[in-house]
Design a protein that fits this description.
Strand content: 5-15%
CATH class of the largest domain: Alpha Beta
Number of strands: 8
Largest sheet: 6 strands, parallel
Distance between the termini: 10 Å
Structural class: alpha/beta
CATH superfamily of the largest domain: HAD superfamily/HAD-like
Number of helices: 10
Shape: elongated
Strand order of the largest sheet: 5-4-1-6-7-8
Radius of gyration: 18 Å
């Protein structure tokens, strides 16, 4: 069976995510500190894997791996416990703080595609494949990111966990993206960089999973491992 649709994870697959998450962690910390003080901000940083000295962000932590809903629930928990506010208020204020950080990130940070990604996307689109995104991130924010990167027009579908339900490793975002694109998962290739991407692809029943620099991916079966997206070859 030949593929019709190529779906991509975003962070670490299309986008250089190290600096991006460091910047976002710093902005969220500042939003928490300015609104509720140093103690609350430091508790938030501890629970989210952000190191205020140097702004290193745990690559396996919630900023990098959680869905937006999970991330906000954690922030609300901090405000409820250490901010001393009712739960409904904590949830609302967590959303406001994250939205402020999102706006500042969008205005002050320039994201970067990983080397060779832009050329590969153009190549696949030119070869007639439908392209899409299936991510644990929020759909609207992902669309804005793709617009900043100058590649939004190449993607016919963008699906985040807020739209599909559960985040990866559950298959929801992959299955939903295939449905939106009008393509059976059995004619889809999913490209990601994490074992959770591989697990989501397998559960969704895609034709092939491509792991980009994925040291923890199992490989075998309907899996291809490559060092970079530039070396990906998809034959129609």
């Amino acid at each position: 069976m030949e593929p019709e649709l190529v779906l991509f994870d975003v962070d670490g697959t299309l986008v250089d995510d190290g600096d991006r998450y460091s910047s976002l962690g710093r902005l969220r910390f500042q939003a928490m500190r300015e609104a509720w003080g140093e103690e609350v901000a430091r508790e938030w940083a501890r629970l989210t894997g952000v190191e205020p000295q140097g702004w290193r962000v745990d690559p396996g932590g919630p900023i990098c791996k959680a869905t937006r809903a999970e991330d906000l629930a954690l922030a609300a928990g901090v405000l409820y416990r250490w901010g001393g506010m009712p739960w409904h208020q904590a949830k609302s204020l967590a959303v406001e703080a994250y939205q402020l950080a999102d706006r500042q990130q969008e205005e002050g940070y320039t994201p970067r595609l990983l080397e060779g990604v832009g050329e590969k996307l153009q190549e696949l689109s030119g070869a007639g494949f439908k392209l899409g995104v299936a991510t644990n991130g929020e759909t609207v924010l992902t669309r804005r990111l793709l617009e900043q990167l100058g590649v939004a027009s190449l993607f016919s579908v963008v699906t985040g966990a807020d739209k599909a339900g559960r985040g990866k490793p559950a298959p929801d975002v992959v299955v939903w993206a295939c449905r939106e694109a009008g393509v059976d998962p059995g004619r889809c290739v999913y490209v990601g960089d994490q074992p959770t991407d591989e697990a989501a692809a397998a559960s969704a029943g895609v034709l092939l999973f491509v792991g980009v620099g994925c040291a923890g991916c199992a490989g075998g079966g309907a899996v291809e491992l490559v060092d970079s997206l530039g070396s990906l070859v998809v034959e129609a």
